[in-house]
From TrEMBL:
Keywords: Cell membrane, Lipoprotein, Membrane, Methylation, Palmitate, Prenylation
Xref: InterPro entries: MUB, Ubiquitin-like_dom, Ubiquitin-like_domsf, UBL3-like, UBL3-like_ubiquitin_dom, UBL3_Ubl_met
Membrane-related topology note: Lipid-anchor
Main location: membrane
Residues covered by the Ubiquitin-like domain: 11-89
Name of the protein in its database record: Ubiquitin-like protein
PANTHER family found in the cross-reference section: UBIQUITIN-LIKE PROTEIN, UBIQUITIN-LIKE PROTEIN 3 HCG-1 PROTEIN
Entries under Pfam families matching the protein: Rad60-SLD_2 (PF13881)
GO cellular component: plasma membrane
Source organism (scientific name): Oryzias melastigma (Marine medaka)
Superkingdom: Eukaryota
Subcellular location: Cell membrane
Length: 118
């Protein structure tokens, strides 16, 4: 089993949904974006029923405007310890390709996955 770091090394995340709802979580620096998505999915906050998703695999974290790929750990982001870091949590089936034209990924509209024609 993984060793849990002392409390002062834990990473405090405040996750914000597209709807504006927030929830605070605490993670280890060794946790990856995939681990976080799974934890949030397994511990879905009481106030977030409307945003419930069917699988943790479509939950994506956005940090400072960029999607975190699943294997990126919190430690790799060099977050300030002891501070609360704000990230956005969105449901996306796929990540935008890093090399596609930057403009195409900047959807002005709110994420609505129901009717995207690809």
């Amino acid at each position: 089993p993984m060793k849990v770091p002392p409390a002062d090394l834990m990473v405090h995340l405040r996750l914000i949904l597209v709807s504006g709802k927030t929830q605070d979580f605490t993670f280890s620096p060794n946790d990856s974006a995939t681990d976080i998505a799974k934890h949030v999915f397994d511990n879905w906050p009481a106030g977030w029923e409307e945003e419930q998703v069917s699988s943790p695999g479509i939950l994506r974290l956005i940090f400072q405007g960029r999607f975190l790929h699943g294997n990126v750990t919190l430690g790799a982001l060099k977050l300030p310890p002891g501070r609360t870091t704000v990230m956005h949590l969105v449901a996306r089936e796929t990540l935008p390709e890093p090399n596609s034209h930057g403009q195409r990924n900047r959807e002005k509209t709110t994420e609505s996955n129901c009717c995207l024609l690809l």
